[in-house]
Amino acid sequence: MKKILLALIGLAVVASLAVTAVRRSDAGPKPIESLRQAYRTKGRPSVDHALFAQLKGPFAKPQLVTAACISCHNGRHTEVMASSHWNWERIEYVEGQGIRAIGKKNVLNNFCIGVAGSQQSCDKCHAGYGWADGTFDFTDPMNVDCLACHDNGGTYAKKTAGAGMPEPGLDLALVAQKVGRPQRANCGNCHFFGGGGNNVKHGDLEMAQFETTRDVDVHMGIDGADMACVDCHTAEKHQMLGKAYSLSSMNRNRVTCDRCHGAVPHEDDLLNQHGYKVACQTCHIPEYAKVNATKMRWDWSTAGKLKDGQPYEEEDGQGNHAYMSIKGTFTWKRNVQPEYVWFGGTASHHLLGEQFDASRPLVLNPLHGEYDEPEAKIVPVKVHRAKQIYDTKNRTLIQPKLYSASPGDGGYWGEFDWNKAAAAGMKEVGLPYSGSYAFAETEMNWPLNHMVAPKEKSVSCEECHAREGGRLASVKGFYLPGRDRSKLLDGLGTLLVLGTLAGVVVHGGARFWFWRRRQGGK
Amino acid sequence: MTREYVYPAFGRFWHWTQSFLILFLAVTGFEIHGSLRFFGYEQAVRFHNGAAMAFLVLIVFAIFWHFTTDEWRQYVPTWENVRAQAEYYLFGIFQDAPHPTRKTKLRKLNPLQKIVYAGLKLFVLPLVWISGLLYMFYRYPQKYEVLALDVSALQPIALAHTVGAFALLCFLVAHLYLTTTGHTLTSNLKAMVTGWEELEEEPHAAAPTPTQAATEAAPKGH
Lengths: 522, 222
Fold this sequence. Notes:
- The structure holds two protein chains of two kinds.
- Chain A is 28% helix and 13% strand.
- The model of chain A is unreliable at 23-29 (pLDDT under 50).
- In chain A, a hairpin with a 4-residue loop joins strand 11 (377-391) and strand 12 (396-397).
- The relative contact order of chain A is 0.11.
- By secondary structure, chain A is of the alpha+beta class.
- In chain A, the strands form three sheets. In chain A, strands 5, 6, 7, 8, 9, 10, 11, 12 and 13 form a nine-stranded mixed sheet that branches. In chain A, strands 1-2 form a two-stranded antiparallel sheet.
- Chain B has a single domain (2-204), classed as Up-down Bundle (Fumarate Reductase Cytochrome B subunit).
- Chain B is 57% helix and 4% strand.
- In chain B, strands 1-2 form a two-stranded antiparallel ribbon.
- Mean pLDDT of chain B is 83; it is low at 205-222.
- The chains are: A alpha+beta, B mainly alpha.
- At the A-B interface, helix 1 and helix 17 of A face helix 2 and helix 5 of B.
């Protein structure tokens, strides 16, 4: 008896030790209400720039505004000139490639393919003035465009195909007098329109977010937190936090949800545990392109059709471009369910000049990650698929020259001749072109981080824990309860249960039969 | 016909609570497994975890009870009369032969039951409990402050749990049927409700005392 009691006490001690061992030591999550409070108070500028004599103007050219800015904010230009917004280049370690210069200047995408040869047009979104070709001087501080990011008056605009110069005729003094902390409009003017139109690239960043509801985006919604981009993408000396894996490869400088929400944001521990292997975005971004459609597919191979010698455009039923002579055929989608992949925070990049096998789709920025990696989580991505031009002999992707500034310069959008565009573009990047081209299937991954839905709309359990057709149906390498099972084990188990049932029926039937016979015999 | 008090109160409480818990765990468990839809996945998980905790608490009390009352001795398997019991189920039962072993409070299980129940208590239930606890407290590898349970994959845990579930389901089917093989179709069921069981008449005039019955190997019929 004593022994039994002692054993039981021992068992209780072991059990409580076991519970202590698996208990986490996290501090509680930051209450969401304190976050709401914190972002409800909008900061106000400490000075009124309209009162500064330096900004009275008039300014004959935008570089003079920059000079005026630097005259007070001395040295700040050096910070901008060290940033990606200026250099469009990042020195990063790319797995399998070593340390390489990637970034917007060097990496190909499967939208407008690449900047080289088309700077005049693409560099509308450069945070500088006059980057029209390969000769741009990246060391001249006067070419830094302060206004694109700091105009709070909403009057500043850059000229289309103007190499980053402002619209002619703008009252630059007025713009300069209303500068301040970047607003959604400043960032969105470029980041919402990447790829040549609204929501073409990201899918979760588009012009609706200039002014939207929390239903679309809890953070940016004006009836929600009404946050500016820079509330999360904070900057230190003009170096912005966050980057896109379309352009970078390393696991650094990322904006993460837990910076504000903590590592264990739910009251329910069962949900918190999901965070070990599932990114917040996976459940909280159930769909993207919630207001306007995003481009899902871009087929360059059909470009170049002309009507009466002139390029033309066609629209789909929703008012999106379905065909453009200069760009080819597009497929757009609204309210898109993401695709899901394991992602540990690093990506590789297909670099210009690399050979590839065109018989299967080429992934331009493979995201790395698998279940076993401690850092890897399941993340939602937009996958953009395209057919783009490549060199069939050299087996490399081609950087075509698209924008045409003057007749005969080879720009595809002026001459509609792929051979000339390929030759001109490849010459610009210093790579050979064999003279024969075709179109290859390519894919690009765009991890989704915006358009976070209100919690009531987050992904429900059944949407992933489903035997068939769940959101994670194609995410492999782990056992997902509700989805996975051993077919052999389930088969044997079912057989065993049915066998037992059959045995019971036979045995019971026999008992009944013998009982009837005995009754009859009496 | 005689009546004997076979199942004491706590034993009956334990049995019925456990049976409902196991049924409930089976329904919610197979929903989590993806075999059926009833509560919805989220509720199924919460109910399953809750019922599992209740089951564990019950088990702690049951273990305590078994040891303090020496009831555990009832489950010590024996080869004695196994053959007679098997022959009874295979042949005698159809001819209305008497049960080969006599049920008493101190020997509520027949030799086949002893083997099956011992197997259940030593292997199947621990398999389900241990795999279930690992399933519940399983943490992903080397992440955050996880200190103790460093298991690299859920799959073996889940499969072991599934094995246990199927074994229990088979037991349930056979067990429910075998309740009809008492003195009458319902005498076993009634006994588990009231504690009192109707038993066959002792063929001998002098009924053995309970202690004798417990120690006496009593092959009947064959």
